């Protein structure tokens, strides 16, 4: 029987380099001989597409947004996350339910309520990597100036999200990494945390 695999989640506000680091970590672990599924949320599935479209067509109501995220994540857990872990593979996720706690929490829903709804079906990560960066630097990285950010990128909301991510530091599986470092230094830190 295969040993259980691992779920590695990378979180942080926009501009912290999550996608870049997820790809570098996946390549590094594959080079060590591991089976790795690299994915992201929202997914490219039907519910995820509705969420992605809303970024340009106008943000959904908070109730619809949370509902779509839950449906998207349930499908993700059933079709990719659980099967991969059960056969001994590694899943690397760029965003997970902690982002829902942060971004939908910034819109007024209680993050603890969001968390309990998700943890009713979604497995907790084995490793949570929180890439931390101050909001001004993050906004500079994503090319946003004051007044020009879309609703997902407003400074106040991003500060709420950053603060929420930092509250997770006490979780036994959580690691906070300074994302202001050079990309290769961040990668080496992640690699050492995730070495199997």
In short:
The protein is α/β, with parallel strands linked by helices.
> Helix fraction?
40-55%
The CATH level-2 architecture is identified as 3-Layer(aba) Sandwich
CATH superfamily heading = P-loop containing nucleotide triphosphate hydrolases
What is the terminal-to-terminal distance? 18 Å
Strand order of the largest sheet: 2-3-1-4-5
Low-confidence stretches: none
Write down the overall geometry.
globular
Strand content: 5-15%
**SS-based structural class?**
alpha/beta
How much is the average pLDDT?
A: 92
At the first level of CATH, what is the class? Answer: Alpha Beta
Main sheet overview: 5 strands, parallel
From the 3D structure, determine the CATH topology.
Rossmann fold
The total number of structural domains is: 1
Q: Got a strand count?
A: 5
Question: Secondary-structure element order, as H and E?
Answer: EHEHHEHHEHHEH
Total number of helices? 8
Question: Rounded to an integer, what's the Rg over CA atoms?
Answer: 16 Å
Layout of helices and strands:
Elements: E1 6-11, H1 18-31, E2 36-40, H2 46-57, H3 62-86, E3 90-94, H4 97-103, H5 111-119, E4 127-132, H6 135-141, H7 155-167, E5 174-178, H8 183-194
Parallel strand pairs: 1-3, 1-4, 2-3, 4-5
Helix pairs in contact: 1-8, 2-3, 4-5, 4-7
């Amino acid at each position: 029987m295969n040993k259980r695999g691992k779920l590695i989640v990378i979180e942080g506000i926009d501009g912290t380099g999550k996608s870049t680091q997820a790809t570098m970590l996946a390549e590094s672990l594959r080079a060590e001989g591991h089976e790795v599924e690299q994915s992201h949320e929202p997914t490219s599935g039907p519910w995820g597409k509705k969420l992605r479209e809303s970024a340009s067509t106008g943000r959904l109501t908070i109730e619809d947004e949370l509902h779509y995220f839950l449906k998207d994540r349930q499908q993700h857990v059933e079709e990719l996350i659980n099967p991969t872990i059960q056969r001994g593979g590694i899943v690397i996720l760029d965003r997970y339910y902690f982002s829902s706690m942060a971004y939908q929490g910034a819109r007024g829903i209680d993050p603890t309520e969001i968390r309990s709804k998700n943890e009713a079906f979604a497995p907790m990560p084995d490793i949570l990597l929180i890439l931390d960066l101050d909001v001004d630097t993050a906004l500079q990285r994503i090319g946003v100036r004051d007044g020009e950010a879309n609703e997902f990128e407003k400074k106040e909301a991003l500060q709420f999200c950053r603060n929420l991510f930092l509250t997770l530091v006490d979780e036994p599986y959580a690691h906070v990494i300074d994302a202001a470092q050079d990309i290769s230094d961040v990668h080496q830190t992640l690699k050492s945390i995730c070495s199997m």
